[in-house]
Structures are given as C-alpha cells and as structure tokens.
Design brief:
Blueprint (H helix, E strand, L loop, with lengths): L3 E4 L4 H14 L4 E5 L12 E3 L5 H11 L3 E4 L5 H6 L1 H21 L4 E3 L2 E2 L23 H20 L3 E2 L1 E3 L1 E3 L12 H11 L3 E3 L7 E5 H13 L11 E2 L3 E3 L1 H11 L5 E3 L3 H7 L8 H7 L7 H17 L2
Helix pairs in contact: 1-7, 4-5, 6-8, 6-11, 8-11
Bound molecules: 2-amino-3-ketobutyric acid.
Length: about 325
C-alpha cells in the first residue's frame, strides 16, 4: 500500500502534487509537510511541520506515518538562489542527502526528487537539448540540481535506492504562486492581465524557454513514480518537455481573451539566467521508457489559467 510524504507541500508544485496524489491514493495516504503551514494544499489531509534540513525530524515523520514514498520538493530556485548562494547550496544539497540517506537505511522507501532545465548552461545545445550533452550550469541552483542528479544515480547504483527524477521546465499553475524562479513571469503575467494592470516583464520579449502546465507536471511525476522500476533506465534525471514560447507569444495568447492586457519589457538579472537555458528539450527517453506525453498546449494552458484565476483575482 502506498503511503506518501510530500516535503515542500505548500510550494507551487507541492500544492498541486499533494492534491493529485490525494485524489489518486486517498487523502489519508498522503502526508503533506512544509517548514511553514499554508492555507492552500495541506488542509484536506494529514500535515506535518517539517524542516527538510533535519534528518531526525524527517525520520520521525516517516516512521510515525509508515511512509514508503517520499516526494522531496523543497528547494531554493534559480533567481532566489543567486541572492544567497551558500544558503541555496546548503538547503538544496543537505535536504536531498537527508532523504537519500533515509532511503538507503530503509530500502522500501521510493524517492522522487525534481531536477530542472537549470542543469544546462551556456554551451549546452539550445534547441531540442538532448538527454546527454554538455552541462555547464552557471547558477547555484543549476549546480545543485546537477550535483543532485549525480547523487541520485550514485545512491541508486551503490545502495539500490529507487530514486526517480525529471528535469522540469518552467511550471505554470494557478493554485500557488511560484517563488524565486526565472520562469515565474509566465504566472505573474496572468495576475496583471486579470487585474487590468500593465505587466512589467523581467525577461525579454523573444526569450524562448521550455514550459509546462501544472496538470502535465503532476501527471509526469505520478507516471514516473508508478512506472515499473525496470523501465526507468535513466537514474540521474529525465529530460521532460511540453511547450516552448516567448513572453511575447504568451502575451499574444492572453490578449486573445483579454484584449486590453498590456506588457512592457524590462529585462533584469534573470535574463542572463534564462539566456543560459535551452529553448526546447528532447524528451524522447521519457516518452520511450515510461510513455510520457503532455496534454496542454499554449492555447489550452491560457484558457485554464484564466478560468482558474478569474474568481481568485476578483476576490483579492
Ligand atoms: C526556475 O525558474 O528557477 C524554475 C526552474 C526552471 O527550475 N522554475
């Protein structure tokens, strides 16, 4: 019987993944945890306040709830990481090693850990970036994700830990705001359009990045974790792809629904981070190994976001 722990359950992905897991396995089978409690995501099932830096605390929660699957999502993202590199490195690495060490002690625990397109860097091939290629990340977040991938593979090969991972593109969802990422513009822009305010975009209009709607991200996460272990041939992290667009293309799509939406471009330090990432990703390994296929194109994504956010913004 599956009993999950989500670490970082109040974050952008954690909120929606917790909801997806509770729908699939039942609310009482999914323990949400975070360093803070939140009004979103953790209300309809068990919740534990948990510091991912504290090995003994994670172990206590795992034992108390007889957890056999850990989704470890807590991390400091790319833009925020650059404000305090030692803190980002320490949180991202220590928390991952805590979870991997727990799974090493108890081999019945399966682990999901998210990597990111941030593992790629300026000399990585930009278009249809392959699974295996030059990886030279130049943010502390990207460096921590690349190191994390190596640790995942190491723990799998040396200690038999069943750890699985995907390299998420920028994620777009309506339940919780993202925090501290370079791709956050693609969520912020919807709020401003619905509030009738001009959106000041911190990336350039023609900056193409790989992106994904949250429902697809949740589906990919559950699919890879449900897959037969024999089919998981990549034990570092799988390339994962859905759509690619620029801020201007997203704006044009929003404008079809909200003609008065306005945008101006004022690229800041995040542009340099975005410039070092791919435009698009080749995810054929994920498709071939565990049947990955995305559902949301840009049109469907914009419709869903506006439908979900309209009542929320009206009540602010
Ligand atoms: C970020 O922008 O830092 C994240 C990511 C692409 O991993 N959304």
């Amino acid at each position: 019987m599956t009993k999950c722990l989500v670490i970082g359950a109040c974050g952008q992905l954690g909120t929606e993944l917790t909801e997806g897991l509770r729908k699939k396995y039942g609310a009482d089978k999914v323990v949400a945890s975070d360093i803070h409690s939140s009004s979103e995501g953790s209300q309809d099932g068990p919740f534990e306040m948990l510091d991912a830096m504290d090995f003994e605390a994670i172990k206590r929660v795992v034992e108390k709830h007889e957890i056999n699957v850990i989704y470890h999502l807590a991390a400091i993202l790319s833009a925020k990481g650059e404000q305090n590199p030692p803190m980002a490195w320490s949180l991202n690495m220590t928390s991952l090693l805590n979870v991997l060490n727990l799974a090493k002690e108890n081999n019945s625990i399966k682990v999901f850990w998210p990597s990111s397109i941030a593992v790629f860097g300026p000399t990585t091939p930009k278009d249809q970036t392959p699974q295996e290629c030059i990886m030279d990340p130049n943010t502390v977040y990207g460096i921590s994700k690349l190191a994390g991938e190596r640790w995942c593979q190491y723990y799998h090969e040396k200690y038999g830990v069943d750890v699985r991972s995907v390299r998420y593109p920028g994620l777009i969802g309506s339940k919780t705001l993202p925090g501290g990422g370079t791709t956050d513009y693609a969520v912020d822009i919807f709020y401003k359009a619905l509030q009738g305010e001009t959106y000041e975009c911190f990336l350039a209009e023609d900056c193409y990045l790989p992106m994904m709607y949250m429902d697809d991200a949740v589906k990919a996460t559950i699919d890879i974790m449900e897959a037969d272990p024999e089919t998981i041939r990549v034990r570092s992290s799988y390339n994962l792809s859905a759509i690619t667009f620029s801020p201007e293309e997203l704006y044009e799509e929003i404008k079809k629904q909200i003609p008065e939406a306005e945008i101006i471009y004022k690229p800041d330090f995040r542009q340099k981070i975005a410039d070092s990432w791919p435009n698009s990703i080749d995810d054929s390994n994920a498709r071939n190994d565990w049947g990955w296929q995305y559902k949301f194109d840009i049109k469907k994504l914009v419709q869903e976001m506006l439908t979900e956010l309209e009542p929320k913004v009206a009540s602010i």
